[in-house]
Amino acid sequence: MTDRPRCRFAPSPTGYLHVGSAHSALCNWLFARANGGEFLLRIEDTDAERNRPELTDNILDMLRWLGLEWDGEPLHQSNRFDEYRAAAERLIAGGTAYWCDCTSEQVQARNKERGGKPGYDGYCRDRGLERGPGRALRFRVPDEGVTGWDDVIRGKVSFENADIEDFVVVRSNGNPTFFLANVVDDEDTAISHVIRGEDHVNGTPKYLLLRGALGFGDPPVFAHLPFLVNAQRKKLSKRRDDVSMLNYKERGFLPEAMRNYLALLGWGPPDGVEVRPIEETVEMFRIEDVNPSPAFFDHKKLEFVNGEWIRRIDLDDFIARAREFVDGVDEQTALRALGPLAQERVKVLSELPDYFDWITEPADDTRSWDKAMKLPVAAAALDGIIDAYGDAPWERDELHARFMALAERLETSASKLQGPIRVSVTGRLVGLPLFEILEYLGRDESLARLRAGRARLA
Fold it and tell me: From CA 303, how far away is CA 323, in angstroms rounded?
């Protein structure tokens, strides 16, 4: 081990980066930065059939988007087969691994026949098989004793060795399993802290047994993070939940907000201030303060945090980020004039099109039209506002004043009066402030839309 803490994030490129994996990466990054350590990236790409280069690219891109830059070059396990083979040979030489030709069907049949517990039954332990086609290498787990560790988050954890099956360390195709590759890599890169999800708890005794059999020294410190769960308190799953980090990026969540929110899952700042810069989170983060209980991935809270961050960035930054969501809107006029109003309202940037889709012509929203125009005041509202605005100085305060005077004259509420006017101008019942919209459109375009709305109503 080194004096500086070293931790790692080790994703497998078999799918897009999952929010749970991003949470693990963030906690490793926070721990490293908070303690003057190093954050290493390792790509677990030994499964050539399932790995795809574009998925590795996605993982790297999403980590960069989140601002979780790693130290040094990523380590690819696909380049380290010689090291894994050498470790396997040491296990064979030491008598702690043996060759096995059992298929999963044979194991299941034997277990069913004898009514034994599920898992491998040690059938090939003493058969003395040599290596050969279709044979896997299994680790010989001690029959007695306990394997355990002091987990920074979960306290003392232990497993009876008798409850751990003889697990595979080299598959029948010659590829190393997760267990062997991780033990070798962690030793070779001097990892001091293994911070990962709760789903790895059951694999940790296998990790420790392998380390001992390979003659490695003191193991890393372990910290197993809580599961992320949905509203039904079920573990997040890509089959039923929105878990792809790329999806969140494409929907207009800011990286500042996403990493801010992910940091709050299972951990909270001691001063209770949740929306804050990542630099402050680094100063406060302590891995031992993470709660082991499942953490609820709350979409509403994420949207709240994102909205807060949208309002924190300056207008130029907001316009730059808004471009990809409001394609075709003139950023030098519409976004600059009305952007601050949208910035105050949106929770995610993908909401922006509904705030700007009236720029060239009213939006085609039949539901809004039907709801506004069925009001008894609709015709009078449009007739009155067209007349009131005919000679008005085209400035928002004056437009508002004449609107309020019309509401008083018609003895109706401002909300009822505004509906037919807003829908005629924008096509929608909700959106940016009406009088700022009218001012932006100008007299001729605004009156033309109001008259078109009145003609359609007739």
Answer: 20
